[in-house]
Amino acid sequence: MLAASLSAADLSGKWACEVQTDAGSGSPSFEFQQTGEKLKGKYSGQLGDADVEGTVQGSTATWSFGVQGSSVVYQGKLEGAELKGKVDLAGQATGTFVCRKQ
Q1: For the chain, how are helix, strand and coil distributed in percent, rounded to 5?
Q2: What's the pTM?
Q3: Tens-digit pLDDT string for the chain (102 aa)
Q4: CA angle 55, 71, 75 (to 5 degrees)
Q5: Euclidean distance between CA atoms 5 and 46, whole angstroms
């Protein structure tokens, strides 16, 4: 377990994102604090501001936050300097995202 934690990507810091969904696009930002495989932080964007929680396993990360009683879920993979993946906007829309560390 310790070896897996040591090899996990470190996502700590500020990230600027571009999101494309079937309901439109946006440019949210995240600020993450990572401890081992645990991810916490803040979301700021069109949906307001929210606390974020998630996990990192290797180069794959999953995180979510609540909006009006529903969960927005991001799942992505660190590819070089970018975090890319899919987003589910509380079951209302789905799409893709690309985040770049600031």
Answers
A1: 5, 70, 25
A2: 0.90
A3: 344 444 568 899 999 999 999 889 999 999 999 999 999 999 999 989 999 999 999 999 999 999 888 999 999 999 988 999 999 998 989 999 999 999
A4: 40
A5: 33
Domains of the chain: 2-101 (2.40.128.120)
> What distance in Å separates the CA atoms of residue 41 and residue 28, rounded to the nearest whole number?
13
Of 5, 17, 10, 29, which is closest to residue 86 (Cα–Cα)? Answer: 17
- CB of 10 within 8 A of CB of 81? no
**Residue 67 amino acid letter:** V
